[in-house]
Write a structure and sequence with these properties.
Three copies of one chain form a homotrimer. Chain A contains five helices and 40 strands. In chain A, strands 8-11-14-17-20-25-28-31-34-37-39 form an eleven-stranded parallel sheet, with no helix packed on it. Chains in contact: A-B, A-C, B-C. Chains A and C meet through β22, β23, β38, β39 and α4 of A and β4, α3, β40, α4 and α5 of C.
Chain lengths: ~325, ~325, ~325
């Protein structure tokens, strides 16, 4: 149980109401009871404020007067909620040491504060720093380094010589450092181009479940500090992703493309290879990028769903646009007579 | 070997021909021998009926007269084939008990009829019910429950507190309950929003290889009874999928979207976040959904492939539609004179 | 260290300069030192030739005069670089034998030259041929065969009875032989169609990280010799992919589709089910294929990104094309008066 005063201090807020009021957990406005703390960040949900069962609500100052119970007033309720939720839900420490079922190469360096889970495999020359957690079922191949306080949840594969920074969180099923897709056509037969680069993951990076990041062909693939990657993203060899860029699920990035800092890439977007996106580019979901983007701003493509019946017709009209252009041309000719 | 009489009884059909005729396996019309049972569900393949080597064929009544050997006449040949194939290919029972190489927390509850495979990891507080199969290499984190007769094939990850219903089948590489993609921008730096909800998987759900289902931010992500998910689907946090909905491969569903019952979502479709699709919506493959769909029916988007040469031209015409509209306007002005 | 003479012999080239000059590794033109070998295949980068620190550069004959240090002149610099990189970066042999932590069924056949890694699971009736490497964490279910010199990197799942050819490379997270998505609607309830076929992978196939290839419904799914698959590809049941076809990341191929030989499929493309693509088809990235392609050539779809502001307008124009067509019709009527 935490008092509102303690929480307010942690999230840099001001209590309107009872500072000694205690809450134990976080809930939504719609489904909370009186020992829960809730929040309002999207004002569209303002109507739930009056009905909420929550004992206290985190709000911005303009919403404070609508709160019927206790309020904690902050600048940014969403950020404040994130911090309060972290306070109320501390991550359970994993036990330091190496699980008896793990298979760890004799010449690897595992810091005594690190936690190596069940059935883990750690190869030769690996370096695991302090407070790192390597969850059950992970395979860490030779010469990988994982820097302090990073956490690999479970069933993750880090291939040879991959470097992972500090406080990185990697979710299950992620594969980092598999060979990039490098092939050369030798008189009709495809041969593999050895992928001798590796992957560098910066600090404070998150990598979502089943995302794959390929190793570089010659130099390294680079994920910079503060990058947040969602699930099932494919990052090709020698891609470089700039600091604090955020990429939603199911995005594919072909080889050697460079993405700037502070970009926001919507889910399902596809980026061709050898492109360059400057800092501050935003792509809406499912956007198809075939050329470099040289100016910050928001870009989009794709035509949203319509009824299948209308879609069929519109596709035909699209296909026949040349005829339409031709007809307009003829009309223009006519008017010139 | 099964007699046609036995099979007909199982699939609710009537034998036309020899009830005592025996078959041992299922084959296609094109490649069967006389000890095989085949079926015709798509009438486009009717011409194969006369040539088939199959000893017997499952057909609808209007096709019965075209069968040259034995027939089993049923209402729905595809459903009947599915049932006959299950009868002729019974799943081998997995051995009950815990494999010696598995790592199982002392305080987990594993029913004695359950089968825990090699190299499995089972965390603290886990509850595995009767006849459950946890295949080799799976990682089951703390406080997960898997209800009776569910089967996890291999190399699957269930994260903390995930709940799996009865008779669920989960294919390799699936990750359930990884953190949802919740981030808040704290003065230019992204911080994580703790994902304190979990995932509930109903009864009779199938989940295809390498599909990922994220845990909820506060409340749970919910996959209802009878839902069938294909491979490489991404389900964001707090998504709710209604009963008996079917989703084909490579679909991405962003956070907090609600999909109704009995929907059919085609492969590669993308659904934005915070949307609502009513019951009975059908999406064709690769459809992009950016708004809620409030009426049952079939929806589509995307322009199918054309020759690259034509595509280039059509893209330019598309981009110049505003000019075309302008030209038509001017023509209209002209005619008004 | 290798002399240029030795390398030239291996890659079928001619040294311009010092045959005894020694290099130790491969570098890019932009970032090499004098003990490195570089290459120029894309003439766009010709300007780097004069500045490069590389001790030697692989080039085509028309570029030889621009090289300031040593050159190795070849017909195809990219193929020659691939071969030189293989020579300079020989793969470390894995130790033959079965790791003590692996769990191997007593009735499997493991060739004594094969390497079975840590925490591997090998089921009953499996046959692993000479020089095969099964990397750590792989799960090989019953009755699988892996032919000589194939290499499974780590954390891969091969389901029952899958057949893998010679010299195949499979990257982490791949799932081969999970059940195809076969369901039949039995009076409103989906039931599973048993997937009793398997998967055949030919020789010299590469399969990228987290790619999934489903087993066939009755007959087998087939990946022919020399096929190269990138990451996160989904191959549905009973798909047949012809020899030497190359498929980039994130492609989805629905069930029963047949792709010819020597095709090149761009990243993120989607192919519907039951289609047929002839030999020599090329698809650009994110192309949506809904019909069979009966003629070799390049095909495309999708509209590339534009500024979001313009996109909104163009989508509306697209939706209103019928009105535009109507207006043009009326103008045509007018001119006929």
């Amino acid at each position: 149980m935490w008092t509102l005063g303690e929480i307010a201090k942690h999230i840099d807020g001001v209590v309107h109401g009872e500072e000694q009021y205690e809450v134990s957990s976080i809930g939504t406005l719609q489904n909370s009871h009186k020992e829960q703390l809730s929040f309002l960040s999207n004002k569209k949900y303002k109507r739930y404020l009056t009905d909420t069962g929550a004992g206290a609500v985190i709000v911005s100052s303009d919403m404070a007067s609508f709160v019927v119970n206790n309020a904690i007033v902050v600048d940014d309720p969403y950020v404040a909620y994130a911090k309060a939720a972290s306070l109320l839900n501390p991550r359970k420490d994993e036990q330091a040491g190496i699980h008896s079922s793990a298979s760890v190469a004799a010449d690897s360096l595992i810091h005594p504060t690190a936690s190596i889970g069940a059935q883990v495999v750690i190869g030769s020359g690996v370096n695991i720093a302090e407070y790192v957690v390597i969850g059950p079922g992970c395979v860490i191949l030779d010469n990988v380094t994982v820097d302090e306080s990073s956490r690999l949840v479970a069933n993750i594969t880090l291939c040879e010589a991959v470097k992972v920074g500090k406080r990185v969180i990697i979710h299950p099923g992620v594969v980092i450092g598999a060979d990039g897709f490098g092939i050369a056509n030798d008189k009709g037969k495809w041969i593999n181009v050895p992928q001798i680069g590796s992957v560098q993951i910066g600090d404070d990076v998150d990598i979502g479940a089943n995302t794959t990041i390929d190793r570089g062909a010659i130099e390294d693939t680079i994920i910079s500090n503060g990058v947040k990657l969602d699930n099932q993203i494919q990052v090709g060899h020698n891609v470089i992703i700039g600091e604090n860029t955020v990429i939603a699920g199911c995005v594919g990035i072909a080889g050697s493309t460079i993405i700037g800092k502070n970009c926001i890439i919507g889910g399902g977007a596809g980026l061709g290879g050898h492109l360059e996106l400057v800092d501050g580019v935003m792509l809406t979901g499912m956007t198809m990028v075939t050329k470099s983007i040289k100016q910050a701003g928001s870009y989009s493509s794709g035509i949203p769903a319509e009824e299948t019946h209308d879609w069929h017709k519109n596709v035909i009209r699209y296909r026949n646009m040349n005829k339409l252009v031709e007809r307009v041309k003829q009309l223009e000719e006519f008017t010139k007579k």
